[in-house]
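To: structure desk
From: M.T.
Subject: fold request, one chain
Message: Could you run this one when you get a chance? Sequence is below, nothing fancy, just the single chain.
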Amino acid sequence: MGSFVVQFPSKLKNFTVWASANNGCAVQTSEFEMGLGVCLEMRRTGLVPNQFALGCVTKGCAALGNKELGECIHCFVLKVGMETNPFVGSSILNMYAKLGDIEDAER
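Reply: Done. Structure tokens follow.
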């Protein structure tokens, strides 16, 4: 699905297209690597993922066991000021718990 989105003309690459592609990859089909790629490509276009896209990404990090990328996503969340969003906060907590890092989950 990630390659499908990349094939769209740039004027059609709006937030809805990217978020739908990310959700389709990460949540609906468990293609977490592709979902992470879609989210990274969305960032390269200058769009900021919303709480639902970030939830998909943290789920992908946990499913892939990628703590390093999860920590990067956590830093991004802090940078854009979304740490107080309940959906994002619980997604990050869940990610750290699934990765077995209870200390970071508690922070």
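Reply (cont.): Residues 15-28 form the longest helix (14 residues). Let me know if you need anything else for the meeting.
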